[in-house]
Write a structure and sequence with these properties.
- By secondary structure, the chain is an alpha+beta fold.
- The chain has a single domain, classed as Aminopeptidase (3-Layer(aba) Sandwich).
- Helix content is 28%, strand content 34%.
- GO terms for molecular function: acyltransferase activity, transferring groups other than amino-acyl groups.
- It comes from Devosia sediminis.
- This is GNAT family N-acetyltransferase.
Length: 141
């Protein structure tokens, strides 16, 4: 075996790693959980049908992980972020999730998530240098 650096991940490399890890995790958890699923809530311009922002998330092991959330600057402050998070929480509940977790940088929106009931469970200082990465979770009922 050899270790080969790929500066841009080949799709087949990612697939081999992900599929192997999913199989291993299924064995370790006795198959109690379905494989991870990916969902999106797209923020679309109704006139053009163009996606301008939204949210992507992964559902796995009874939790939803919000991977990405983006609202274009001209649409910020109009409630779209809270609506996206609220709809993600609704999807998570329907899927049987017990909670949602996410991370955000100090220059992004930690206060926004805290206002929505998310509790910080960790930070990573100086990532990127001069800033902090915040990890937050919300238990769903």
């Amino acid at each position: 075996m050899e270790i080969v650096f790929e500066p841009d991940v080949l799709p087949e490399t990612r697939a081999a790693i992900l599929e192997g890890l999913i199989r291993y995790n299924e064995q370790q958890t006795a198959g109690r959980f379905p494989p991870p699923r990916f969902i999106a809530l797209a923020l679309r311009d109704p006139q053009t049908g163009t996606t301008v922002g939204g949210l992507t998330a992964r559902i796995a092991y009874s939790r939803m992980f919000v991977e990405l959330l983006y609202i274009p600057e001209h649409l910020r402050g109009q409630g779209f972020g809270a609506d996206l998070i609220g709809q993600a929480e609704d999807v998570a509940r329907r899927e049987g999730c017990t909670g949602i977790w996410l991370d955000t940088f100090s220059f992004q929106a930690p206060g926004f998530y805290k206002k929505l009931g998310y509790d910080e469970f960790g930070t990573l200082a100086e990532y990127p240098p001069g800033f902090t990465r915040h990890y937050l979770h919300k238990t769903l009922s």
